[in-house]
């Protein structure tokens, strides 16, 4: 008998997908956005939604499970980490370092414990920090503009997309280890 969960997906049209195309909230029926900034924002939105989808339907223990020992990474840790990173990016925009949300280095992952209050707080932190960073960036629509830390708005946007995309890859593997669910 194996401790490994059986692989599965909810998709019925394409068995390697997370959701059927008609039910995937990331897909729109319209054309792709026009322009560089709307395209970057669309990709960021898609990766943010993907992270949430990879966490859906799991309880606090499953979200906090460190599925790939000895790593401290968990789905809940990723949510907390991305809240922390959004706060850091806002510091880049505003030109001042922000105090860490969770304290010392790596506390975002180490503090990701199987407690529903911790889960609820992590999601609230992520939503708040995403909205605050989005609002701070909205004041800088010129992608070539240099922010207070010397980075361009474009560089920050691409970095945000890269960070979410990389962690969505981690989330794919973590989710599969938790309950066997696979897909794009």
UniProtKB/TrEMBL annotation:
Chain segments annotated as coiled-coil in the UniProt record: none
InterPro entries documented for this protein: DinB/YfiT-like (IPR034660), MST-like (IPR007061)
Pfam families, alphabetized: MST
Gene3D superfamilies: dinb family like domain
Chain residue ranges for the region called Disordered: 1-37
SUPFAM superfamilies membership: DinB/YfiT-like putative metalloenzymes (SSF109854)
Protein name: Mini-circle protein
Phylogenetic classification of the source organism: Bacteria, Bacillati, Actinomycetota, Actinomycetes, Kitasatosporales
């Amino acid at each position: 008998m194996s401790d490994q969960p059986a692989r599965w997906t909810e998709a019925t049209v394409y068995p390697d997908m997370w959701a059927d195309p008609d039910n995937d909230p990331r897909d729109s029926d319209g054309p792709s956005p026009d322009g560089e900034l709307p395209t970057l924002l669309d990709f960021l939105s898609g990766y943010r939604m993907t992270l949430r989808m990879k966490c859906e339907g799991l309880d606090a223990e499953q979200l906090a499970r460190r599925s790939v020992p000895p790593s401290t990474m968990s789905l809940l840790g990723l949510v907390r980490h991305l809240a922390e990173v959004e706060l850091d990016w806002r510091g880049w925009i505003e030109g001042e370092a922000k105090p860490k949300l969770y304290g010392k280095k790596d506390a975002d992952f180490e503090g990701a414990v199987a407690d529903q209050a911790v889960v609820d707080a992590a999601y609230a932190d992520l939503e708040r920090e995403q909205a605050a960073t989005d609002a701070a960036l909205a004041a800088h629509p010129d992608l070539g503009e240099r922010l207070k830390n010397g980075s361009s708005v474009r560089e920050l946007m691409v970095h945000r997309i890269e960070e979410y995309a990389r962690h969505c890859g981690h989330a794919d593997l973590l989710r599969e280890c938790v309950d066997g669910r696979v897909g794009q």
